[in-house]
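In practice, a research group might receive sequence data for several interacting partners and want a quick structural hypothesis before committing to experiments. The following worked case mirrors that situation: the sequences arrive first, and a predicted assembly follows.
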Amino acid sequence: MRLDLSILVPYVGFLAQGALLTVWICALSLIGSFVLGAVVAIARTSSSKLARRLAFAYVDLFRNIPFIVQLFFFYYGLPEIGIYIDALTTGVVALSIAGGAYASDAIRAGILAIDNGILEAAEVSGLSKRVVFTHIVLPIALRTSVRPLGSVLINMVLTSSILSTITVNELTGQAKIVASDTFRPFEVYAALLIVYAALTWLVSIGIGMLHRRLNRDMQPDVR
Amino acid sequence: MRYADFTPYDLVLLLQGLGVTVGLFLATSLIGILVGTAWAIVRFYRVPVLTPAITFLAELLKNSPVLVQLFLVFFGFPAFFHLNVTPVEAATITLSANTAAFVYVIAVAAIESVGRDQIEAARVFGLTRWQVLRHIIGAQAAAFSAGPLVALMVNQLQVTSLISVIGVMDLAKIGANLNMRTLKPFIVWTVVGILYYLAAKLVATIGARVENHLRSHSAFRGL
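A structural hypothesis for the assembly, expressed as tokens:
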């Protein structure tokens, strides 16, 4: 009944390895879901009805099915159709696809928030549609959606713990090993809870700084 | 007959799993909403000691993976407090606490959305503290929080899938069992995914109805 955190000391390095893998997974998945989210957000705001429908179906589907079901679908399903990739890659792919659905909503909101006057001014200046999009719409949309994208990232850090169920030994996976090694699950998982909270807290501080940096020439934050 | 084939009984199993998922979802949502609202009321009355403790607990629950919370309750509590915790009990405790943390945030925002002047006016009219809470704050806060609450519920329905990891026979666990027996991951996980999707849509539809009902007092009635 005594809380003895000192039993964790020999395992700090082992857990740090897991934490590094978690960070690595989240970094890769962030890139993946950002690219996917941007493409889907463009499709959802495009003038083509088919593209809008397809993009909406993707977002609707992946937001309303539990991540663990999606993960198992990919992990057990892909080998059946002859695609053999390791658990880590499967996890990153699944996390990117699921995160992409949430990221696309954040980016789409950023695109829709752009003042029509800006688009009309760009059109009047004779810029082509593509240039308007890459040089005017995207820069504005992305910097206003930094905060929502940040909460997608925080969710991703928490969701990445589910990868431990498909044998990826990230932070939670390593902690499971430590818990069965030491027979002290309470200490291990309580410490893990704090570590995850600290991790997401650091991410949210980073996002806040990035947001202020990118929006430094805008009007002061309403706060 | 080979045991690897699908049998009509599998449908019964799937429905049973869906029942467990929906049952636990409803029970934990109800407990979570009650507890989260109680926490928000404690904060509203600025109860010393309790308020910072609740804020800290809610932050911790929001910023850590549900999987780790489940492990802490299911593996940690029996080892540390020498209790017997069944998978269903662990799932109920964890999901309720997790829902409560998110409900707390929504409820705090909803209570703050009711102007101080209204509360003062009500007190001047001689309403008791309970009447103020019930008729002035409660009614308006419920309408204010309906939208975010529905979004939370849809999310929490998906979170319930994680309890399959500690052995609760919910829809995801039935899916895992069928997957192991039939080795047809594509069919199994697609069906499980569709069932989750339909359940989520049902929650969203019912939620939208309730929201409309709660907001009907402020809806535009036409000229």
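Before designing any experiment, note the following. The two ends of chain A are 45 Å apart (CA to CA). Chain A has nine helices and no strands.
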